[in-house]
Specification:
CATH superfamily of the largest domain: Hypothetical protein af1432
Number of strands: 9
Radius of gyration: 52 Å
Largest sheet: 5 strands, parallel
Structural class: alpha/beta
Distance between the termini: 91 Å
Bound molecules: fe (ii) ion
């Protein structure tokens, strides 16, 4: 705002008249005011003065020998385009004065002889007008500059936001990549554990895969949180990893015919499993579930003789599924139980070894599942039972949710090999469903 006040600090007026006494009179008139006065006795001398001084107001007589006032003021435009112009004229020269006004070169005319007060007032008003105009221009300029700054700032801001966004996107991509890598590594570890179990005993590995798939199924039915379901699924997958060190002949026996020494060794397996997995952060919860998967509901189990709800829910789920799987698969038993016999046996253990709520939920789930399979005219088969040209009746996923094939695919020998590989490598499905 500084320039606005100082624009007309030194107010310069040029008086042009061929009569020196008039110039003197004008000089006297404005002597006490804060103006810098310049005078010229002809139009030519006036133009010369304009060249040398930054005049803001020109007051010119009209009637002068040589160059007339109007012509002088028109020429003055060239040297002082922003100066205000007043013409002094007699009544007889009104026509010339009007012409000057019409041509836009003169703001005011004052008739001779002038009234001193009127002339002083007019000059004052002209300067006030010039001041206003200058202030206006300065404001306009300031506004334009601020606008430019704003546009600049805005562009800088947009650029910064753009750069920032780009950086965040890149960071996110990197994080996603690292997470994927971590997860991949984690599941590699699980696969390694599973293949260690498999090397020791294919039967235990198959049992673990089946118990894992069914435990996930049951946990989901019980509407547990996805994170907990995953932990239970993992725990079930590795629940018998502690059996790796137990001799084959001990594992072949049912628990009731083990010698005391064998029984003691056998009962170590939940603890050994926990010890194997707990050093891995992401497996700590699963390790705890594994520790307690042989606790009984009535407190008669091992290793900690926990009772009822003191047993982690994942351990109680695995206990039910584990018992069922051992009943229907003759792997560890010398008798081959049918499903219905297995359900009956589960009911007998309900409230003793097994959680009654979970037991009944599991039985209902299995029955409903079987009914659905029948209704849909589907066959539930194992990967190795697949034959060429069978058609999938459901989408096929691994337990990690990876799609293997979609529904309605007619299986080729290569497809079957791929499914068996997926099942062997990643583990997988409760079963494969094909149309009957
Ligand atoms: Fe076990």
């Amino acid at each position: 705002m500084e320039d606005i006040d100082t624009v007309h600090a030194g107010r310069k007026i040029l008086f042009v008249d061929d009569e020196r006494n008039i110039l003197m009179a004008l000089n006297r008139l404005f002597f006490e005011d804060d103006y810098e006065i310049f005078t010229a006795v002809s139009g030519e001398a006036g133009l010369e003065s304009l060249k040398q001084n930054d005049i803001q107001l020109i007051v010119s007589d009209q009637r002068m020998p040589g160059m007339a006032g109007v012509d002088f003021l028109i020429k003055a435009e060239e040297y002082a385009p922003s100066a205000a112009k007043i013409i002094l004229t007699g009544y007889t020269d009104l026509e010339a004065a009007i012409k000057a006004i019409n041509e836009g070169k003169v703001q005011k005319f004052i008739t001779k002889p002038w009234n001193d007060d009127e002339l002083k007032l007019t000059v004052k008003q002209v300067f006030e007008y010039l001041d206003l105009q200058a202030q206006n221009q300065a404001l306009q300029k300031l506004l334009e500059e601020r606008n430019k700054e704003l546009v600049g700032l805005n562009e800088t801001l947009q650029q910064k936001v753009k750069e920032r966004t780009k950086k965040i996107v890149l960071q996110n991509q990197e994080l996603t990549r690292l997470n994927a890598k971590l997860e991949e590594n984690f599941y590699k570890i699980i696969r390694i554990f599973l293949s260690i179990i498999e090397i020791r005993s294919k039967e235990i590995a198959s049992h673990c895969k089946r118990v894992s798939a069914a435990s996930r199924f049951l946990a989901a039915e019980m509407e547990l949180e996805e994170r907990e379901i995953e932990t239970i699924e993992l725990a079930a997958m590795l629940h018998d990893i502690g059996k790796i060190g137990i001799p084959e002949k001990t594992l072949k026996k049912t628990e009731n015919i083990l010698t005391t020494e064998e029984k003691n060794l056998y009962r170590q397996h939940p603890l050994l499993g926990e010890q194997t997995l707990s050093p891995i952060d992401n497996l700590k919860d699963a390790a705890k579930i594994i520790r307690h998967h042989h606790e009984n509901y009535n407190g008669s189990g091992y290793p900690d003789r926990l009772m009822a709800d003191y047993i982690p829910i994942g351990s109680r789920i695995i206990a039910v599924v584990n018992t069922y799987d051992q009943l229907v698969n003759k792997v560890y038993m010398n008798v081959n139980n049918t499903r219905l016999r297995a359900f009956k046996a589960l009911r007998l253990q309900s409230g003793i070894e097994l959680d009654p709520d979970i037991t009944i939920k599991f039985i209902l789930l299995m029955k409903r599942h079987k009914a659905e399979v029948n209704e849909r005219r589907e066959l539930e088969i194992k990967p190795f039972e697949l034959k060429s040209n069978m058609i999938l009746s459901r989408d096929l996923f691994t337990s990690r949710g990876t799609a293997v094939f979609t529904k309605d695919r007619r299986l080729s020998p290569e497809d079957i090999k791929h499914i068996m590989d997926s099942d062997r490598i990643e583990k997988l499905f409760t079963a494969v469903y094909v149309y009957a």
